Amino acid sequence: MFVLVGYASEYGATRQIAERVASLLLYEGVRAEARPMAEVGDADRYDAFVLGSAVRRRRWLQEGSRFVRRNRAVLAGRPVWLFSVGTARVRGGRLDTRGGARGGTGGKAPKAPGCASGPRGGVPVRDHRFFPGVVMPGQLSPAGRLLRWAGHGRYGDFRNWPEIEDWAAGIARSLPRGPQPPAGRRR
Prior knowledge:
The chain has helices at residues 13-27, 62-70, 72-76, 142-150, 161-174, and strands spanning 2-8, 31-36, 48-56, 59-60, 80-86, 90-91, 94-95, 115-116, 123-124, 127-132, 134-135, 156-157. The chain is α/β, with parallel strands linked by helices. A hairpin with a 2-residue loop joins strand 3 and strand 4 (59-60).
């Protein structure tokens, strides 16, 4: 089993989450690598996918969206998990837990193109998690900093590493162990 932990990161927080997920999968005995989705040439060489993107205006970054659209046929036949990283779950410098691990955005997950949480339409996804990210002044426009100040927002790293690691461990438990035929040759 060879897993791509693909990511689209703007400031590095999503990349770090992807690297942590890949490390945990490796620790659990699942062959995995973390790579920017923009650099993945042949998606068919992977047996499963954990794909994540930073979220801007409730949408994935373009490189993540492009990867999903370009590889829809491959993704549709393999296990896929998604994660989105943003600041929607961070209110006033604290984590907003009203929506739980999958919400915090008014109960709506960020839009990942061509994906569905079930078997109908798009790419079937086993799970889609929204993780809080990092908010630093240099990431915001002057207007964004003003709005954050007016809303009593704080800056910092709001990632919940135990939550991320538990999610990754669940993925590892659901994947087969041991030698598997290469993805492109198993059909």
